[in-house]
Amino acid sequence: MKKSSTKILIADDDAMVRMTVSKILEMFGHLVDTTSDGKGVIDIVDDSYDVIILDINMPDMDGFETMSRLNDLGFDIPVLFLTGAGSMDYAVKAINLGAYDFLTKPIEDLDIFNVKIRRAIEKRMYVLKERQYKSSLEDDIEVKALQLEEQNKLLLTYSNSLENATVQLMSSLQNAMEEKDYYTAGHTMRVTEYALMLGMAMELEENEIRILRRAAQFHDIGKLVIDLSCIQKPGKLTDEEWVLIRKHPTVGANIIQPLGFMEKEQFIIRHHHERMDGKGYPDGLVDEQLDDLTKILIVVDSYDAMTSRRNYRKNMSMEQALVELYNCSGTQFEPNTVEFFARSIVDFTPTKSVFSEEYLENVYKSNSK
Ligand SMILES: [Fe+2]
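^ inputs. structure came back:
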């Protein structure tokens, strides 16, 4: 802030003193305002003043009280006390209140007077510069923070839309490939529905539900990559065919892996054929090595396999499948998950008649989710 001339406020109840001091200051090129008491100072003062000269003894509001009121106002203008006979008590009190300096009256040495005024002005300039620097720094920080926030938002939107686009693309690909495998298509949708039903029954967090949904949606994606024409043929599978089929969790996880944003889903997909007793595949993990979401998928995936008709065997009824789940509870399945599943499946009605043939066909057409 560049100022052409400095502005000084003088308060003294003695008109003669006011006039003399004003004349001297004007002679040195300063702009001067005067008032006869402390109250006048408080009424007039604003940030445009650079120095305040206060008499100590004034009616109503003396110099000390005025100073303390000025401190409250926070303009940070240097105050010089005008004092007659110097008293130590006065000096200490004034310094404690934050007075910048003292001027003796009558003014005898103009040079000293001028030096003191100039120093007070310099002090004020310093305060103003510092204030300006601080506020421009704050503005800068605020602008930078806003820019950063804006960039973060953009980045998040971009990465979300990239994620969604990737998932969409995978879904389309999956739907296209599932046209060749009617069973897997229906199975994927039913498993997803069951997984969400169970996840909600177990009161999972929203984010976990999202992960579970994606994992369920793509849990058998590996099957679409391996040539599994064998599983559609009538009759039982041979040992070689089983070896091939047992590769699908690893293949599925490997398909997801390069995406970089579905790490948890990748784990669930890789391990959806593990068992609590460690006799599952591909890694033979046991109960405590598996997370809740994987345990959910293991249960619902098996349940759907049991209750669906396959070429090589008949399907079980809901009751028969539940008995089987309970029988294998603790060995193949996690008991608490089975318990929750059994309780929620009996009242479960799929919301979008996801199990109907028409729904399946529509999904193929629309290529959605
Ligand atoms: Fe599977």
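The pocket of fe (ii) ion is lined by residues 219-220, 248, 272-273, 301 (CB under 6 Å). The chain has two domains: 7-135, 179-366.
thumbs up if we can close this ticket
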